[in-house]
Amino acid sequence: MERLQKVMARAGVASRRKSEKLIIEGKVKVNGKVVKELGVKVDPEKDIIEVNGKPIKKEKPVYIMLNKPAGYITTMDDPFDRPIVLELVKDIPQRLHSVGRLDCDTEGLLLLTNDGSLTYALTHPSHQIDKVYLVKVKGSIDSEAIEKLEKGIELEDGMTAPARVELIKRKKNYSVIKMTIHEGRKRQVRRMMDAVGYPVLKLKRIKLGPLTLGDLKPGKYRHLSQKEIKVLKKIEKNVRS
């Protein structure tokens, strides 16, 4: 027996938190009866669970690593008709969502899944999952700017956590650094670099938690290995405990 919201999240209905909201709002039925209590446990193999009158599908969990190209957005639809990342995995039959976001101009590692419980574990603000970026900036970055990034930057939405910064290349007109952060604020890396006077020219995420982009080509995807999935599920288990 498992908690109802956990079963809903794993089935790809929504994140665990959003599943809890659906339950409280009376939009979920178990075996024909409306359930509004969050402590209810169900048998996912026997009980019939409906959300908004529709039975949830017992989908096989899918875990996809995509190398997102610039120009694609990570929302599931766009009123401005810009390309969305789901177009790059349209041959996958399951309903996928992105784990976190990359802005339109940012490239690199994006995790797509139908596992809402894992998504919650990897994206909740209290769960410090490292994200590593290669950042090409305008100008020859100095040690003072790097020191500021490593101490934290005051942005309009508050002080950032300290970043880890490694200088990769420094030329007269541009520099390349590797930056590691664990927060997920909107356009955070770009805003941090603007704050120290070195605007971003190119931004690419190369690592998310234990996952590394490697030589996956832009616009291409691959299924995670069983070893990678096992490590992610271990992180999820640690978060729940």
Give a summary of the structure in a few sentences.
This protein has 241 residues and is an alpha+beta fold. It has helices at residues 4-10, 16-24, 116-123, 143-151, 188-195, 226-240; strands at 2-3, 28-30, 33-34, 41-42, 49-51, 54-55, 63-68, 97-98, 107-113, 131-138, 154-155, 158-159, 164-170, 174-181, 200-208, 211-212, 221-223. It contains six helices and 17 strands.
Describe this structure in words.
This protein has helices at 4-10, 16-24, 116-123, 143-151, 188-195, 226-240, and strands at residues 2-3, 28-30, 33-34, 41-42, 49-51, 54-55, 63-68, 97-98, 107-113, 131-138, 154-155, 158-159, 164-170, 174-181, 200-208, 211-212, 221-223. It has 241 residues and is α+β, with helices and mostly antiparallel strands. The protein has three domains: 2-55, Roll (Structural Genomics Hypothetical 15.5 Kd Protein In mrcA-pckA Intergenic Region, Chain A); 63-126 and 211-240, Pseudouridine synthase I, catalytic domain, N-terminal subdomain (Alpha-Beta Plaits), CATH 3.30.70.580; 131-208, Alpha-L RNA-binding motif (Alpha-Beta Plaits, 2-Layer Sandwich), CATH 3.30.70. Strands 7, 8, 9, 10, 13, 14, 15, 16 and 17 form a nine-stranded mixed β-sheet that branches. A hairpin with an 8-residue loop joins strand 8 (97-98) and strand 9 (107-113). Helix 1 packs across helix 2 and helix 3 (116-123) packs across helix 6 (226-240). The two termini are 18 Å apart. The mean pLDDT is 92.
